[in-house]
Amino acid sequence: MDNTQHNFITVQGLKLHLAELGSGHGPNVVLFLHGFPEIWYSWRHQLVAVANAGFRAVAPDYRGYGLSDPPPEPEKATFADLISDVVAIIDHLGVNKVFVIGKDTGGLVANFFAVLHPDRVPAWAMHEEEFGLTDPKLEAPALLIIGCKDYILKFPGMEDYIKSGKVKDVVPNLDTVYLSERSHFAQKQSPELVNELILGFIKVHS
After folding, report:
1. Local confidence band at 24 (pLDDT 50, 70, 90 cut-offs)
2. pLDDT of residue 127
3. Which of 39, 70, 136, 179 has a CB 3.0–4.6 Å from the CB of 66, allowing a cystine?
4. Residue ranges of the AB hydrolase-1 domain (predicted)?
5. H helices of the chain, where?
6. pTM of the model
7. Taking the alpha carbons of 155, 186, 21, 142 in that order, is the dihedral positive or negative?
């Protein structure tokens, strides 16, 4: 991780921290969105793998997390703010499209972003997360990586919703990969496997 660049951009008056590796451009940019209560560092293994594969890997700290400034009124912060931040980050990177990879809370942000800005997402992936929108459908190719012991599957109705295929009513182009004996932190428990899955997915859709 010694080659990681730590940059800052200003969005709506807040200084946001970006960790970056690699030098890809255009659709070869991969944006990693962390979960709660994590920071960019939770994606450290994936940043290295993606950058080594020729992509530009970027992982921000959300507003109020890590090295990013907190909003002046945290109680009024919404997912809309996080989505606006993602748009500003992509604009700052000077690209039109990025692959978006989200985990936990980041999966919801990726979900909303893919729906609201479909022209900016060639494909997106979630690592262990719920789906947040039902209309319109998420038409972009999608990948769900989930540990078989993830507590998300214990949410009422969630395991049936995913395993029965009902989720494809919302995300018709979804591929799901289950990782046996892995929990909510599979990207740390089995980084090589998760890296392989992510890289295989984004290379197909590059």
Report:
1. low
2. 60
3. 39
4. 28-128
5. 44-52, 79-93, 105-116, 158-163, 186-189, 191-204
6. 0.93
7. negative
